[in-house]
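Aim 2 progress. For FAD-binding PCMH-type domain-containing protein, the working sequence is reproduced below.
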Amino acid sequence: MRLQKPSLASFALVAASWLCWTDIVAALPASTDTCMVDIKGSSNSTLTTQCSADYETQRFAFDWNFNYHPLAIYYPSTVDDAAAAIRYAAANKISVAPRSGGHSFEAYGVGGRDGSLVIDLKNFQQFSVDPDTEVATIGAGTRLGPLYTRLNATGHLIPAGTCPTVGIGGISLGGGVGFWTRLHGATTQNVVGMTMINAKGEVIEVSKTSNPELFWALRGAGGGSFGLVTEFKVQAYKAPPVVTVIVMTWPVEKFRDLIHAYGTWGATVDKGAFAALVVSGTYVELMVNYQGNTEQTQAILQPLLNMTGEPTNTTTTEGNWWTAASLGGRGVDVENPDLQHHRNHRGRSLVYRGVMSDAEMDVIESYIYNSTKPETSTKVYVTYELWGGKIDDPEVPSVFDYHKGVVYSIQTGILWDVPGNKPGVDCAECTKWSLDFSNALQAVYSSGDKIESYQNYMDHDLPNAMDAYFGPNLQRLIDVKNAIDPDNVFSFPQSIPLKQES
Ligand SMILES: Cc1cc2nc3c(=O)[nH]c(=O)nc-3n(C[C@H](O)[C@H](O)[C@H](O)COP(=O)(O)OP(=O)(O)OC[C@H]3O[C@@H](n4cnc5c(N)ncnc54)[C@H](O)[C@@H]3O)c2cc1C
Ligand SMILES: *[C@@H]1O[C@H](CO)[C@@H](O)[C@H](O)[C@H]1NC(C)=O
Ligand SMILES: *[C@@H]1O[C@H](CO)[C@@H](O)[C@H](O)[C@H]1NC(C)=O
Ligand SMILES: *[C@@H]1O[C@H](CO)[C@@H](O)[C@H](O)[C@H]1NC(C)=O
Ligand SMILES: *[C@@H]1O[C@H](CO)[C@@H](O)[C@H](O)[C@H]1NC(C)=O
Ligand SMILES: *[C@@H]1O[C@H](CO)[C@@H](O)[C@H](O)[C@H]1NC(C)=O
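Predicted structure tokens for this construct:
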């Protein structure tokens, strides 16, 4: 399939790396000719191959411990170029992995295995807010830090996550819980339209009225499974005039009181508040973010403090919402959240519909405090993020509605250092520790008779993961998958399958 005549610039690129192209082509099906350069497209689109100088800095996910080798990484600058690349991949039976912020817990933004064509959307940075409808148009390569700054400049916000390096692509296709989600719903529940390229390379509009089944499926199960979204239209909201963030810490011995108080208080607190609790080996920390001044924020916290007693340390920041959002970055340069920010990490999500049982707290005590940690680990933790509020009462149905009624989601995790700070280095001990901890917690799961988990914290080790993420929605998702991508061009180890696994 001839897509486009190679430009002179792209010809030079292929000539300089001829040997490597031969290697790549040798790995492709026999019918593939050597014209892969055709995906070079227009002059501002670029291609990183296995022999490009920057391949070793571009092939990793935010979680640096994964060591996958994509076939190539393509950075289209236009929708047409992205479409041509998808047609190329489909014709040559190559899996396509869209990448927005690269924060998939399983490195699915680079395919989650070797040999995918990564289509990185970093050149898609368009931004505007319609003054009448307050709908924001957001390029699919935008990360939350720069997005928050652009929104703040127009006096708006969208509900989304706390980490500035996360991409709008993954977060808004799989959920999106954090600042303002209790007030306005998960990010995905606020997506009102998308421009998507399907596996045939056709550009389609997806909304409540255009491709409605796909619209339902993309919002909650959309990451990497159905097509490549180049642009999001997201309902934005006027930013509140004053926002306060209070961060409190307690000594580790108080962890049971905090978990108990957090679940009890969180189930009924004003939905203008968002809160995250971190139980780690050295402290217990609670961060509360509220649309109000310091006094008002202290007032909504009082019932919780009545259960826990006063914290050892308290830091209060009153300001505008951007100041509050930037605190989530904890030192990351919000404006420059590039690929070089990283960590080594394994973790798992479980979601809860009420306060944890004593048995669950015993498991946390035993792993976080009493167990021997792997030598290289730098931190072990459980974080609790408050859900509910408007998440339970969305304007338009989506896959994400399966999680209505969840009080909080937890994430168990372990972080570690690698000597020399090299990417691609796994820690078998850490993975084992993480698995043992998550499995022990799961064995005493108190929140219903089967495990429920947040699909944006994907985990290939989670048994019955599809059921945990999507519940009764799975068959309908499979039907959408068959209709839109029957050849499974958009696939990775945990993508929506073409049929139920038996
Ligand atoms: C440090 C950290 C903090 C986090 N904080 C939060 C938080 O506060 N709240 C929360 O809800 N979640 C949070 N997450 C989870 C996060 O929402 C998911 O990991 C999300 O999938 C990341 O999106 P991404 O675009 O950065 O990642 P990517 O790895 O680029 O993408 C994730 C998946 O979506 C697909 N995808 C990405 N863009 C597109 C697109 N344009 N079209 C089609 N498919 C696409 C990818 O192929 C991949 O399968 C956090 C994750 C990390 C690592
Ligand atoms: C490439 O980018 C430059 C600078 O942003 C722009 O002026 C030019 O029009 C772009 N070219 C194409 C073909 O998109
Ligand atoms: C965010 O918006 C507020 C209110 O308009 C403004 O004062 C502040 O400077 C903005 N912050 C940034 C970082 O742009
Ligand atoms: C907290 O406890 C104090 C004293 O015990 C009581 O007066 C107050 O009403 C309680 N506040 C809340 C919000 O529960
Ligand atoms: C409280 O703050 C002090 C001084 O900033 C610090 O030394 C201490 O470690 C903090 N304690 C906790 C429990 O975070
Ligand atoms: C953790 O260790 C303490 C002190 O040895 C002990 O009292 C407690 O029972 C242990 N907890 C668990 C869950 O094993």
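The longest strand covers residues 377-386. This observation will guide construct design in the next reporting period.
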